[in-house]
Amino acid sequence: MMFIQEKSWFQVLEKEFEKPYFKELMRAVDAQYESNPGAIFPAQNEIFRALELCPLTNVHVVILGQDPYPTRGHANGLCFSVEDSVRPFPKSLQNIFKEIEQDLGIAYPQNGNLERWAKQGVLLLNSVLTVKEGQPESHSKLGWEKFTDVVINQLAMHREGVVYLLWGKKAEEKAKVVNLTWNLVLTAPHPSPLSAYRGFFGCRHFRKANEYLKSKGRKPIQW
Comparing C-alpha atoms, which of 104, 124, 101 is closest to residue 171? Predict the structure, then answer.
């Protein structure tokens, strides 16, 4: 079975799909969708959407999240992102847009769907790719972290000149394999309401990311 259709990711992850832990993970995830119809997010065909929309060969920026939104109708397979119709935006996403507005003068967007970023080369990867409704981190013990660690490892091995925007200690820990000489790693507190005022606001990561990309002869991201 080809879990990921996007060719460049499939090539570096194909062997992972054959490992016992991944097969067990898939069995556990399938069981969750079967036993909790309509209450596991995102939709099953969107689990690997971050990789499908942002090929390995096109990754310019990485943003790491924790797990999907546990609110029905919110999660769409991209970290921090929500479906077009969701109002109001989740508070962490509101704070991200607030920082972009303060940093770059870009007004709040009409929707919180970050697919537009993914298609420009922003990998919006959660550490855990599924969640049960109303239960944050409910799938954190299924084995997803091991798989997404491999994704980051493969990215670090195959791409350089990438900007890593790491918000919060968990994101920093996950990207510890990244070579600081060959990439730009920017850290700040998580944009959640509990920590955004401790240094996420004013971090100017979006401006710094674009300046770095331009220094490498790449197009800046249209945030």
Answer: 124
Can you tell me the distance from the alpha carbon of 74 to that of 182, in angstroms, rounded to the nearest whole number? 35
Q: Establish whether the linkage from the previous residue to 109 is cis, with ω within 30° of 0.
A: no
Dihedral of CA atoms 184, 66, 2, 113 in degrees, nearest 10, equals -80
Q: Look up residue 141 and give its two tokens.
A: 């013990």
**Alpha carbons 144 and 126: distance in angstroms, whole number:** 9
Query: What ranges make up the beta strands (E) of 43-161?
Result: 61-65, 122-126, 131-132
What are the structure tokens assigned to 219, written together? 């197009």
- Indicate the residue type of 119: K
Could you tell me the pTM of the whole model? Answer: 0.97
Three-state SS annotation for 82-137: CCCCCCCCCHHHHHHHHHHHHHHCCCCCCCCCCHHHHCCCEEEEECCCCEECCECC
Quick one: CA torsion of 221, 174, 91, 192, rounded to 10 degrees?
Answer: -120
Residues forming the active site: 67
- Positive or negative torsion for Cα 15, 18, 19, 25: positive
Measured CA to CA, the distance from residue 200 to residue 44 in angstroms comes to 32
Q: How far apart are CA 175 and CA 149, in angstroms?
A: 8
For 187-214, how does the pLDDT look when each residue is reduced to its tens digit (9 = 90+)? 999 999 999 999 999 999 999 999 999 9
β-strands 163-167, 131-132: how paired? unpaired
Nearest 5°: CA angle at 71, between 66 and 46? 65
Tokens of 65: 């999240």
